[in-house]
Q: What sequence folds into this?
């Protein structure tokens, strides 16, 4: 029987045939070995980029659905471990790293248009949900039925975990936007301080330099605020919050009703 690595590395085979062979192998429902060599081989294929994404998607999809990845030493791997291996492989062999990694984990299946996060929610795999969102998975992507992952969360435990990790992601993106906004503020602050010091050294130009210092500070702050609110991270954070807030209200309402039913 061919191993997973042999299937991935096989040359002279069409895209569809390789994907079919990979699916047939995975359908045997066995524990699959995951290491950097596997992902490196999948990402190094000199073919259409989609086949690389297809193969990585199928492997990760299987790990999420069956929770059955193992190491070279036959030790069980968590999905967090699998994502770490993929991340390290991409960082070592792929350029630009972040852009390609983001594309990989947000790849959509051709038939259902589900992402890996959709599958994690369907499988009620809260560990995979956490790992994917921490690695930058987009929780707002819609599948063929126009549903986001949050729309597919049926079990209470899964929905609460997804909401929590989406909130964490939104908070992280806001912090990133805040850090980027300092790029605009810091030069203005330094320029303002410099002009303020200059006004003390040159008394005859005190009014002019003080005016310029205030203007530099105000301009710096204005640029920083603009960078913050117009940044992609901030916009994504707001979109995540807009998706989560109605669900939070629903959860609170359901818990209130349940508590009343118990007390009644």
A:
């Amino acid at each position: 029987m061919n191993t997973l690595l042999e299937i991935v590395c096989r040359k002279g085979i069409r895209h569809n045939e390789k994907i079919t062979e990979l699916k047939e192998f995975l359908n045997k429902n066995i524990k699959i070995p995951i290491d950097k060599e596997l992902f490196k081989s999948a990402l190094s294929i000199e073919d259409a980029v989609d086949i690389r994404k297809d193969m990585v998607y199928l492997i990760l999809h299987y790990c999420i659905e069956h929770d059955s990845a193992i190491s070279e030493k036959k030790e069980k791997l968590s999905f967090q471990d699998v994502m770490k291996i993929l991340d390290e492989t991409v960082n070592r062999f792929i350029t630009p790293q972040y852009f390609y990694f983001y594309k990989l984990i947000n790849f959509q299946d051709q038939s259902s248009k589900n992402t890996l996060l959709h599958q994690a929610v369907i499988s009620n795999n809260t560990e995979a949900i956490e790992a994917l969102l921490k690695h930058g998975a987009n929780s707002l992507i819609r599948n063929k039925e126009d549903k986001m992952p949050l729309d597919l969360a049926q079990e209470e435990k899964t929905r609460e975990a997804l909401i929590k990790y989406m909130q964490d992601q939104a908070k992280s993106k806001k912090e990133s936007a805040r850090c980027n906004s300092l790029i605009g503020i810091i030069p203005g602050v330094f320029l303002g301080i410099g002009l303020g010091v200059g006004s003390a050294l040159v008394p005859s130009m005190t009014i002019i330099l003080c005016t310029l210092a205030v203007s530099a500070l105000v301009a710096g702050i204005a640029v920083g605020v603009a960078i913050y609110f117009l940044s992609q991270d901030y916009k994504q954070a707001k979109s995540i919050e807009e998706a989560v807030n109605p669900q939070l209200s629903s959860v609170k309402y359901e818990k209130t009703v349940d508590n009343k039913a118990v007390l009644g």
The chain has a mean pLDDT of 78. The two ends are 62 Å apart (CA to CA).
